[in-house]
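As a warm-up, study this chain.
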Amino acid sequence: MKYKKSIVTFYLLFLFALLVGFEYLLGVVYPRSPDPTITDRSIILKELTPGYQHILSHDNSITNLSVSDMKPVNLSVNKNGFIVGPNDTYTSKSPKIIFFGGSTTENIKADEDKRFPYAVSKYILEKNGSFVTTLNAGVSGNNTIHSVLNLFAKGISEDAKIAVLMNNTNDISGLSRTNSYWDAGYYRSVVQSKRGYGHYLLTPLRLYFPNFYYLLLDLRMELSNTKTLSEWASVDYIDIDNKEDMLRDFKRATETFVNISKIWGIEPVLMTQPKLHNTNRDDIRKEYNKTRAVLDYDDFIYMHDQFNDIVRRVALKEKILLIDLDKEFSWKGDYFYDWIHFNNQGNIEAAKFISDKLIEFHKPLFNTVNNSAL
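Now compare it with the structure written out below.
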């Protein structure tokens, strides 16, 4: 056996030497330079796995879900990476509305027919008799720049009539740590670099062997004596008060989304982000402090309110529809399963509220007579 391995090794080395020699001779006779366009870097498309279909069970650590909210939920992602509902009208000719944002848009823990991006299509049909297709581009961790990139990379080609944006908390999370949308943890970094063989091994494990992958992850955390693995662990944090920079960059990012939409003939709609947290909620303060956030709890509340105010001001300046979910739903405990995410009931009420605002502001689009022609 050792003799055979030696023979195989010899022939492989011999073939490699021949290739090197042949390359050298070609370089002498007909020299060419290496291709300068080869790079292992790319711009991120932070989306859910296209074609993903799975039943999701809830994390046992979430203790304040109702009994009905605790049952497993279906997650269906179409071929272009958008979350869809149980009755996918993706291929229809009805007007399309795309919802962009982070986990508060994604709503992965809600029933698939109650996630507000999908439920909006049901309520517009019920209230106005208009068929519309709604696509959910929300992804956990996505900030406004991710939403801008998703809009440009795959939203415009959908020929959508309306693009709805709701971002806030994820922007605060990143900007407070690094003062930049471009300097972030690997899974949020705008410019991606390949990370070697480990990346190519772990990716199929996460997708096709999730039970084994998470077993390995649990073992790693146990060995390292940590409860969570932070994607920000390798990022250098800033040590300055950068609140003004954060407000400026969030405004610029929001305006970028609005202007790209307008340039491509899409009606932009901005939504504020509702929340349950306030300075008097010590229980939420305790949970927030477990997140390893840079801002303390009171500063986070202040910045969250400031970011929502920026959304309002941009909508007013650009003369576009503002849907103020913050004003309508914040501090209504029955609508949230934690301090920022809607439960099933919250999603239902939000869908009704959003539908009313869309119909009121965009009456020509939802005119039942012209609906089939759009």
